[in-house]
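Bug #2210: token dump truncated for Acetolactate synthase small subunit?
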Amino acid sequence: MKNDKYTLTMLVENDPGVTARITGLFASRGYNIETICGAPTANPKMSRITITTHPRPETLEQCIKQIKRVVNVIKLRDMTGEKAVKREMALICVKAQPKNQDEIRSLIHAFNGTTMDEGRRHFIFEVCGDEDTIDVLLEKLSPFGIKKLARSGVLALYREA
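Reproduced locally. Full output below:
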């Protein structure tokens, strides 16, 4: 039985309760939503919700069918795989002792991060990339001490032809 991470994105009407109905479908099956990100699109009457989860493939199909039946769902796509551009943003606050500051700055630069706040003993910066890239950066920063972390969740769009 395959147990991969799936990325689903849906275009929905921008109405109260839509996200709750969709997440309820996952909860009723006992599946955790690993990340969820929702925001209005260029059309303020619509929002895009992107979810990552780890269900069994056969149960995912049932979930997809039921999500499509939710009245407010306009379109649903499985963004798992290479056909989609997927990105996540993270805000990271790391301890920065004076002896480590240059090394931390180099790491931030190597991962195309942007310093947002710098104190005598901490840096807060943002970084954008795929989930694996952010995971690698967090692993490299771990020895310095990560004080706070906020991740946006995955955003995904299909590649244009």
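Output looks complete on our side. The chain has two domains: 6-78, 86-152. Marking as cannot-reproduce; reopen if the truncation happens again.
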